[in-house]
Design goal:
The chain is globular. It is α/β, with parallel strands linked by helices. The model has no long low-confidence stretch (mean pLDDT 96). The strands form six sheets. The chain has a seven-stranded mixed β-sheet. A five-stranded parallel β-sheet has the order 7-6-5-11-24, with helices on one face.
Length: 536
């Protein structure tokens, strides 16, 4: 094993599409100007596709190398003239172990999505024996329940695409890229943990990593087993229904309206769809504020069309391409793509009877014939019609109710050309839907406020100028995309991460502090660290 000082990171290594492992080794040797025998080991740290010039598409890599002593010293002395070479320090997230934790006062986590899962994992590693409360089912049972809903329309309001082990991310593309800044090594810890429990190691280095819903289910099962082995406890199909306080501090939680569990720390990893719990918190005096989010539809294009546009003639030798588009709609509102799923499916993501909404999902191979993404329009708190914290929730519910009534519980579908002409479609064009759940042709304009309708029309025309064919008349549109993020924020202290009631820790996307799997996981880790610090 080489000493840490022999590690260097080499950036801006360019390799052709279809490169072999030996090509990478030779490229490192050339870049470092060393002999073959001096390169003892190497590992890809970052890999992205550079498609700025279609005729010169290539991979751009950053690689960590381990060198023999003499070569290392030689490269180090010359690296001042090469900014692509830097000293690499392989730092790891440090988790303190609590040797004598009070097993009578275990932290309780409400929700097993990414925030709750990683909070529980870190607390378990620290020896604090967390209890994870999840109203939905474990992922094996949950998968069967969701598939039954897609096939027969029989919805469980406690275990569905939104609720159950893994949270809403279980039935998604499993994207792991994030805009969150992370100087504390939490993001690498999240990715390394996913790999440890079954994810493809490529997520550690590819530019836009994703797991895929099929692989994520295996990861969840393996993480659950590890958390339990470390002393943690899962309680599925168990609902958090109340909590008790004394002198402004938490003293216990109520489960299933009948069982009281004493505790001084409850972590609320609720997810963005826990509307009944939001109402409970509001009634109990937890301070919350409304928050802007976005509303729209999901659109489908042929994946081959998107990949050809992004990669040209090399499209079939590269992974399915994604895209990101932004524009401006009416009233200066932002219109943009959200949660893009290459080679994916549009799924009925309903969680309440009498309401319909959609989301995107893909498997690890991203091998369906269509690409889909949400095309959404920014809405602000002034659009909600009220100023209280739950106003955005009611705004969402009204749209979802309209979508349900419009198509009788199926997913309302319309072609873009007919959407612009304000008429119900009579059939598909050259693009057919690839979706999970029954669909029915309907006029999506009957669901959405006019400013969203007009903004989508303007946005799609603009996107057609950027990606040829994006605005073709037979683009399939499905609605409604209403849960892009939580419409409220549960206020917490910037230092302790507690709400206005001591001992209650709101975390993740459902608390308004994350957006996506990785950022939610990172937030869960941050709060776990704070609890460990307090306990120690």
């Amino acid at each position: 094993m080489m000493k840490e000082g022999n590690l260097l990171q080499v950036s801006q290594i360019k390799l052709p599409i279809g490169y072999k492992e030996d090509d990478l080794r030779k490229a490192c040797i050339r870049k470092l100007k060393i002999n073959d025998k001096d390169l003892l080991a190497y590992e890809i740290k970052k890999q992205s596709i550079d498609a700025r010039k279609k005729e010169e598409i290539h991979y751009s890599l950053s690689v960590v190398v381990t060198l023999a002593d003499k070569a290392y010293n030689k490269v180090l002395s010359a690296k001042k003239t090469n900014t692509d070479i830097t000293v690499y320090k392989d730092e790891k997230l440090s988790i303190k172990k609590i040797e004598h934790s009070d097993k009578r006062n275990r932290p309780i986590i409400i929700g097993s999505g990414p925030a709750g899962l990683f909070c529980a994992y870190v607390l378990a590693l620290a020896g604090l024996n967390p209890i994870i409360i999840e109203q939905g089912q474990e992922v094996e049972k949950r998968t069967a329940t969701v598939e039954k809903f897609w096939e027969r329309g029989e919805l469980s309001e406690t275990s569905n695409v939104q609720f159950g082990e893994g949270g809403a991310g279980t039935f998604s593309d499993g994207k792991l890229n994030t805009m969150v800044k992370d100087p504390f090594r939490r993001i690498p810890f999240v990715l390394e943990t996913f790999v440890k429990f079954g994810a493809d190691p490529e997520i550690l280095y590819i530019n836009k990593p994703h797991i895929g819903t099929d692989v994520l289910k295996t990861v969840l099962i393996n993480m659950r087993k590890e958390i339990e082995a470390l002393g943690g406890e899962y309680r599925f199909e168990t609902k958090f229904t109340d909590f008790h306080t004394k002198n402004g501090e938490l003293i216990g939680v109520v489960l299933n309206q009948e069982e009281t569990v004493p505790c001084n720390e409850v972590i609320l990893a609720l997810g963005h769809s826990s509307r009944d719990t939001f109402s409970l918190l509001s009634s109990k005096g937890i301070i919350m504020t409304p928050k802007p989010f976005a509303i729209g539809v999901r659109v489908e294009h042929p994946q081959e069309m998107i990949s050809r546009y992004q990669y040209g003639k090399l499209y079939d030798r590269l992974p399915p391409a994604d895209y990101k588009v932004t524009s401006t709609g009416v009233e200066g509102r932002g219109v943009y793509s959200f949660c893009m799923c290459p080679g994916g499916y549009v799924v009925n993501s309903s969680s309440e009877k009498g309401g319909t909404l959609v989301n995107g999902m893909s498997y690890h191979n991203r091998d369906s014939k269509n690409a889909n993404s949400a095309i959404v329009v920014a809405v602000n708190t002034a659009d909600f019609g009220a100023e209280d914290a739950l106003a955005g929730v009611r705004f969402q519910k009204e749209l979802e109710k309209k979508a349900f009534n419009l198509a009788g519980g199926a997913i309302p579908v319309q072609l873009l050309g007919d959407f612009k002409e304000n008429k119900i479609s009579s059939g598909f064009g050259l693009i057919d839907t690839v979706s999970k759940g029954k669909t029915q042709f309907a006029n999506l304009r009957e669901i959405l406020p006019n400013y969203i309708v007009q903004s989508i029309i303007l946005g799609m025309e603009d996107f057609g100028n950027k990606i040829k064919g994006f605005n073709r008349d037979d683009v399939v549109m499905l609605g409604v995309e209403s849960r892009t993020s939580c419409p409220l924020r549960i206020v917490r202290d910037n230092n302790t991460f507690e709400s206005n009631i001591a001992g209650i820790y709101p975390i993740g996307e459902g608390a308004g502090y994350a957006g996506g799997i990785t950022s939610a996981a990172v937030d869960g880790i941050k709060v776990a660290e704070k609890i460990i610090e307090k306990r120690s």
